[in-house]
Amino acid sequence: MPDRRTPSSWRLLRIRAGARSGLLASAAATVSVAVVTVCVVLAWLARAVDAAGDASPPGASAEEVADQVDAGTAALASAAPALVLLVAILAATAIAQLARLIAAAREHETATIRARGFSRTQAWTTDAAEGGLVALAGVVAGLLLATAVTAVVGAAPSDALVQWPWAGATGVLLAATFTIAIRRGEARRTATRGARVTTAALVIVVLLASALVIWQLPLARGAGFDPIVAIAPAVVLMAGALVALALFGSAAVAWSRPAAAGAALEPGYPARQVARRIPIYAVAVLLVALTVAQAVFASAYSATWTAMTTDSAAVRAGADLRVDTAPQSVTPDDVAVAASVEGVDAAAPALVAPVEIGSSDAQLVAVPSSAIDSVVSSAGGLIDKDALRASASAEGEGEGEVVVSDPVPLDEAVTRLRVRADLVSPSGGVVTDVRVVALLFDATGAPARIALDGDPLVDDDGTATLVGEAVLPGGTAPWRLFAIVAGTGPILSNRSVSVTLAEVEAVGQGPLDIGGEVLLEGGNAEEVLWLADGGARAGGAATPVEAVVTGTLASRLGVGVGDPLEFRYAGTGRRGAAVISSLVDAIAGATASVSLFVPMETLLTSQLQLGTSIVAPDSVWAAGSESAADGLSAALGDRPVITSAPGVAASVVGALVPGWWIATAGSAVLSLIAAFAIVQTLAIARRRELGVLRALGVTAGRQARMRAAELGGVFATAIVLGAASGGFVSWLIVPELVRAVTPGILSLAGGVTVVWVPLLLAVAGLALGLVAIVAVAATGVGRAARAATVGEESR
């Protein structure tokens, strides 16, 4: 027989606690998913930091790697909180809505307990205890589940358990949110106006905070914890989701009026129901839109980070692979060895030298013109290779001539070079202390300097003839001869000697059409006897080279295309002159934005117009696979290899890319849990209308289809608005966020790109989950409508 005893207050509390056990389970599941997501994200980032130095770049010292890891970790410290903050916002929003639904479902039980004399303090204590138990159950389940999930993403289960303080903090936050929300829900009749004011204030705060973030983010640089970087994604995405929610509400109200004007039940009835229940649908729309926006943001961040870091690294490296040899110079044999490494497609010498232009420090980059197409990287289009090729044509854009380098080609069969020079002293006497040196380019453009040794033969008339020859050095044939230099020894301190180049022979090819004459004054004198500059040096003055300069340099100096430019090689006193042939955004291989490019042949030729020595290349650039870095380092004396891939510091920050996708997966599960609970609660609250519709002749199947259309329209609109807001937010802050958290990003690297496959998979997964929820809700409506009746109170 029924128990007719008056229930005690504690018994009423137990009955009240179990009144909506399904919503309580959903709240615990929300806490669990939030804990799993936070633990897995933090475990992944911690694992990336720990493993950062394992695969150190070839040739890099342990100290250098450690410094780069520290730099990456400092930058990661600013960006990592954004992932946790966004998950916390989603989970808190979801659990707050679940708490409000629980409060609404327990309205009668709460009123009964209050009528029994249940005090406000007792109510707070009871709700706090309930929230604590829900959070505790969720934290324990979340930690256990996180150990399994971390194994799936490649981390150790212990990595997740180590994050228990963060799991506890998440649980405390959600327990507090649950308690406050359920208390506000129970007191909503007397606090509706205050709740609206508080909600409006929070929306204004979020919008103002997002404006502050957008304003300050371009000034942020990840060198430690930066609050702007930490909150930027969460705040701006939340602001975008709120704007999407406002658009949803306006669109729902606007659509309901013309939809209801028709005579048919559809689409007017579903449209009116959505317009009447916007406060109920608001949280579901907000969560779905925010999750989709986060997926779009993760996709944009992933693709943009990869493009910006790779392009920046490629610009700085200049080629796929680069080995700097300073203070030693690069020889043709070094280039040949590099080209023979497995995985290397082509190699060339390069010069990256500091220069001074006026009061500005700049960088001069030179590579052989033949290497522009085969070796120099385009860096995702940031390097204008057409402009570099045009500078090698030496057509000139300004007034006067420019340097033309016209080396004499030698056949591949040539193995030796021989010269015959006539020596005459105007002051009389026999001259024997004279040396001749030849300068050549090999097939890769690497310069070499060889001494043509030989003993002078004294003629009867007192003159002398020097016959010198030398074997071509190691390198890549065919060779090209571009200069011959003559010099005297120290014993001729008070005498002069005239040197006439009588014959130059390439052994294996024959005599070359080369000639020249110089007068050497005193001891240790040296002059260029012949230079392959098209005869320009015969005019007695040096001619400028064609140079490609960055827009930053041109803007700083106030010059443009066709204007002359003078520069000094830093620390040497050597000078050079150039004519600007074109302006570009970046110069390959330059780490400074103030830089210029000159083809190596014309640069070395111009140096020999002013002296007898050259600034030799100090770097080997190679095109090929990144996997060839180890072999290239070993081949060139275990020197460090710079690649076009992101460095160690950037790779540490790169852990954010999968971190964003992990957080997005967790957010999608949170949204689905909240959406399912909201839809099920809404179905319970709308049971009475099923009988009314049935009495009006609306079949159960038709009611199910209308509910499916109603829910499907809401969720589809939320997905579309979320995608739009995510795209807009990505356009606003993703490039600046990448610069703020990643060391070494060039200012010219930018533009938002999207990786489509993960994005489509993420949105499709969320959409399938929502379709399942709609299908379950529609099936439940159809089942309930078949047995629904109209109660007396509804008649």
UniProtKB/TrEMBL annotation:
Keywords: Cell membrane, Membrane, Transmembrane, Transmembrane helix
Any one cellular-component term (Gene Ontology): plasma membrane
Classification via InterPro entries: ABC3_permease_C
Keyword ATP-binding attributed: no
Membrane topology: Multi-pass membrane protein
Localisation: Cell membrane
Signal peptide: none
Domain called ABC3 transporter permease C-terminal: residue spans: 83-180
Top-level taxon of the source organism: Bacteria
Membrane is among the record's keywords: yes
TM helices/strands, residue ranges: 21-46, 74-96, 133-156, 162-182, 194-215, 227-248, 280-301, 660-685, 711-734, 754-778
Protein name: ABC3 transporter permease C-terminal domain-containing protein
Species per Swiss-Prot/TrEMBL record: Microbacterium allomyrinae
